[in-house]
Design brief:
Chain A: InterPro entries: AAA+_ATPase (IPR003593), ABC_transporter-like_ATP-bd (IPR003439), ABC_transporter-like_CS (IPR017871), P-loop_NTPase (IPR027417), Siderophore_ABC-ATPase (IPR051535). The complex is a heterodimer of chains A (257) and B (342). Chain A is an alpha/beta fold. Chain A has helices at 40-47, 70-76, 92-97, 112-124, 140-153, 170-185, 197-203, 221-224, 227-234, and strands at 2-8, 17-23, 29-33, 55-60, 63-64, 77-80, 158-162, 189-193, 206-211, 214-219, 238-243, 246-251. With 342 residues, chain B is mostly helical. Classes of the chains: A alpha/beta (257), B mainly alpha (342). Chains A and B meet through α2 and β6 of A and α9 and α10 of B.
Amino acid sequence: MHVENLTLAYDAGTPVVDGLTLDVPSGQLTAVVGPNGSGKSTLLRGMSRLLTPQSGRVLLDGKDIHQLPARELARRLGVLPQGPVTPEGITAAELVSRGRHPHRGLFGRLTAEDDTAIDEALHAVELTELRDRPVDQLSGGQRQRVWIAMVLAQGTQHLLLDEPTTYLDLAHAVDVMNVIHAAAVSGRTVVAVLHDLTLAAQYADHLVVMGDGRIAAEGRPVDVLTAALLDDVFGLKATVVEVGGAPVVVPDRRLAG
Amino acid sequence: MRSRTVVLSILFAALAIAIALISLSVGTAKLPIADVVEVLLGGGRRGTRLVVIELRLPRVATGLLVGIAFAVSGALLQTLSRNPLASPDIIGVNSGASAGAVAVIVLAGTGGGNISGFAAKVGIPLAAVLGGLVATLIVGALSVQRGVVDAGKVVLIGVGIAAAANSLVAWLLVVGDVNDAGRAAAWLAGSLNARAWSDAIPVLIAVVLLLPVAMMFNRDLSALVLGDDVASSLGVRVARIRLVLLVIATVLAAMATAGAGPIAFVALVAPQVAQRLTRMERPPLMTTAMLGGLFVVLADLLARNGLQWAQVGPYELPVGVVTAACGAPYLLHLIGRQQKGR
């Protein structure tokens, strides 16, 4: 997946993402981080087709995503946007089965292939036992994993996830990150917008730091996440220590008195 | 899940047919059901045929069809806006259609005589569709922000549009000829009284053409309930489908309104009850359609004979009064549920 000179704006206002170019490494987990308003979620919307760019293009397997038919794109690129609507009473398996939409015809039941994809997706997020439970009765972390399973069931080579760990406590966030990481290990190309720097650095193969609609730095987390960068992009005074080969951000305290 | 919707669709259709047969048999001349069936199968005596085919069947058929049309319209609007309160009778589609139809009745009226052929047969349905589309267009345009429909806004704006259209109707009734206004007022209550084949056929055409088209979008609707962003990343062309289905829902409601007046609450209640009974996450179209037909036919049977059966006297109620009596409490129940945030 290539992003070429992409400029994104809402309602023809000032660009939120400004002439951004990015090479997404295949079969790896890329984490996009940045301060609030740096344009990271907007970038993800532009990389899917949820936002039409002012200029520039996004290439998927060498083809402009805006040139591909909608269904064809949905078979190659899975997206979990922010704020999906969980309909009242829908079961986990039902919700996951919706991920098969781009593979299905106008009528007809789920095929054996669909069933396999749904089972595998539920298994991957460790929710096989809760498959017949209504999603609105699950915990926040489980609910998020159901949604990820839906995107996994879509069976796409590329995955874009917008803040999949937001509102989750650390244990549940780690569960979700494990699932996402496993998807990358199995060969999929995954891009996730994350807000927790340490979590992003723990899991990402490739880290993209955004500031002001541009890429401030990118590369291996251990190379990118430095005290100087945190000060520069986030305005955060912090010490970066290394634990098990991955950088950990420890904010400096400024205690009163 | 699937089999439940099929079983309930068949059950509601069977009940609707049973009620329709009862409706065809009761009246001033009481006919045995066996005779009614014989006539419908093409046999029977001449006198019986006249009563069933020319006098009673148009009314029953119109009832079935407008029930189906209103219910499907409600199911589509509720799904598209993700709001159980968004039905054509709440968000102004029926009011817009009424304004169009009343304009024809009053402005093209012949001062007490019957409205002359062309204006009645083509004019009322056409004006109703136009009025309905105008209302939908305004509600749609005002409740969309950044290409996303605001489910709460749809209802608020719709109620406003309905009020505006209703005041237009009130004004037309005041300026119109007394007799025309009287006829329009009776029609506005939602009545199946004295329906002719010319009332049933436009609704029949709308249902036969549009219900299958709506059914083709069933799977897309299942994706759409997950949110516009999720639906479009699943390959659904959200804006286009929303436009097509909005037009279908509007035309169905407007044609039904033209056929029998704005019968209240069918479009609101039938989809919600069908959704609860099938335990789906959105109103299932076919089950909703059959339930809508059943609801109106049953309500009309009660409207026509209820007061006689209750020994009150030989009075008929407009069918809309009966559906409103059932539907209004349900509306309050829905609002109560929404307030609790569930």
